[in-house]
Amino acid sequence: MKNFLLIPDSFKGTMSSEQICTIMGKATKRHFPDAQVTSIPVADGGEGSVDAFLQAVGGEKVYLTVQGPFGNPMESFYGILKGNTAVIEMAACAGLPLVGEDLHPDLTTTYGVGQLMIDAAKHGCVTIIVGLGGSATNDAGCGAAAACGVVFKDKEGRTFVPTGGNLDKVASIDTDSLDPRIQNSTITTMCDIDNPFHGKTGAAYVFSPQKGADPALVERLDANMQSLAKVIERDCKVDVQSIAGSGAAGGMGGGMAAFFKSQLQMGIETVLDTVGFDALLQNTDLVLTGEGKIDEQSLRGKVVIGVARRAKKANVPVVAVVGDIADNVEGAYDEGVSAIFSINRLAVDFKVAKTRAKEDMDKTIDNLMRFIKRMGL
Hints:
By secondary structure, this protein is an alpha/beta fold.
């Protein structure tokens, strides 16, 4: 083995993707000191996505003042990668941690996200990646759209910036006024869930309770989303309810598709395209990937399976190193995973296992490399 490609997901609450790459890399080099080891920390669109992309492909981090969740000025950031590509994580200015205990999904806005997008376009970025996740909002991305020039009017013809609590006041939407620089950009939205815009499995019912909505507010937010969906379908010619993932980030998935004509794409697919994964595979002998737990949900196309599908086409073996292995994951092998190993060396509770995860990851990769070396692979 001469070339190893490391592309693990984070083990949520235990190790970041970057930390796992470091551990895997050191254990690999211990046995193959002359090998080329390429690390690609995985970003899922949420907090830390900008840093992960910058580490993977290089670029610069841009800081600026934008509106926060309640419209107050705050310092935020985004990344500019090589190739005039911007990476924006909505959590950087509309994230749940930013509101603390002041939870009001009916009042929060994504306006700052639109300001980040505009600034990226001003810097010459022609491709913009927007990561959804960890939002404090339920405004369907209307705030971001308004910041980029989309005009929302009530039945009296007055212009306003909608929030979750007054989406039902939107009587018309004009996307023709969208900033030309944004219109001429290719916008991809990273979205790893498939919840619809509204309804019992939609944005309000599933996600707004964790943002502070009580049952009465959940019903009102969902009714507002239904009202907005009708106006979007009439004025934007987009049926957001039929788009898988439109309910992501308080309905921003649907807003990105409707207002920006953005494609909603699984986070891992965006990562693989951005880092040129297919080209990297041409010189790779083994791919190491992983996630906290591989289960049936993983088979829907998250990190391990997304990586395996690409590697299978290039006939490159893939080893998944995970925390837990659920039942009924044999389908992973059909997708291109060659083997799955758990780092859990002892039968202990998660509270204990997480404290020794880094050591166990190192020992697991060390064992794997010993085997590869012994077999002369």
